[in-house]
Amino acid sequence: MRITRLFVDHPFTSEQPVSLSEAQAHYLMNVLRKALGDPVHLFNGRDGEWRSVIDRITRRRCSIALEEQVVEQKPEPDLWLIFAPIKWARIDFVASKATELGVSDIIPVFTEFTDVTRVNTQRLRANAIEAAEQCGRQSVPEVDEPANLLAVLKDWPEDRRLLYYDETGGGTGINQVLTNLKAAGQAEPMAFLIGPEGGFSRSELDLLKEKTTF
Questions:
Q1: In whole angstroms, what is the distance from residue 123 CA to residue 102 CA?
Q2: Are residues 191 and 95 in the same domain?
Q3: pTM: predicted TM-score of the whole model, two decimal places
Q4: The Cα angle at residue 100 between residues 178 and 148, in degrees rounded to 5
Q5: Per-residue pLDDT at 133 exceeds 90
Q6: Cα 147–chain centre separation
Q7: Residues 120 and 175 in one domain
Q8: Domain of 146?
């Protein structure tokens, strides 16, 4: 039987029950038809995954009693995904798949040729949480507020490798770049940047080349 997993941003101790949000309680009681004593696994991105049971139900709320940690929290890759937003369901797909692939931070950026002008970060966060719950991941990636790409690049941290997808065809293949970085012991931390449908502007490409000399 498939295990029901929920992300709860709450510290875990075996002595302290965890109160779920109204939306989570609705999901358990009315969608999944869970009852008192039914098992649920909880994770918070810090304390591993815990086997738990539903110990209290009211009309709109329920609480969970933690029983035992079944998976320890393990270190995860420090990997950012920076991308120019795309429309509607496709951006939800990006958040879900990035979560499944282990991205630690999802960063939407506006470029000169980006068509989308708004990003619903709460919706992206919800998609990331749902993907983490379903795929078995022990954490949920951060979802940043949108920023201008040039501003992000100008404040770029010196210790983080930046790889971008160069539509001009003049770059080194990604497999070769990753092989070289791994051989040099420089594989982390890292970021991948995906541009808009119209490509990067000349000023953006010039600054990117400054930030990716390795």
A1: 19
A2: yes
A3: 0.89
A4: 70
A5: yes
A6: 17
A7: yes
A8: 79-211
Read off the pLDDT of residues 57-72 as tens digits, 9 standing for 90 and up.
Answer: 988 889 999 999 999 9
**Is the bond preceding 189 in cis, omega lying within 30 degrees of 0?**
yes
Buried b (16+ CB within 10 A) or exposed e, 183-195: eeeebeebbbbeb
CATH of the domain at 38: 2.40.240.20
- Distances 3 to 22, 69, 127 between C-alpha atoms, Å: 21, 15, 19
Tokens representing 8 are 């709860």
pLDDT digits (tens, 9 = 90+) for 152-189: 999 999 889 898 987 777 777 888 887 887 877 766 78
Q: Where are the beta strands (DSSP E) in the chain?
A: 5-7, 18-19, 39-43, 49-57, 62-71, 79-83, 105-110, 142-143, 147-148, 161-164, 190-194
Q: For position 184, which CATH number holds? A: 3.40.1280.10
Token pair 């709109």 is at which residue?
Answer: 60
21, 72, 68, 13: which is closest to 40 by C-alpha? 68
Residue 34 near residue 55 (C-beta atoms within 8 A) = no
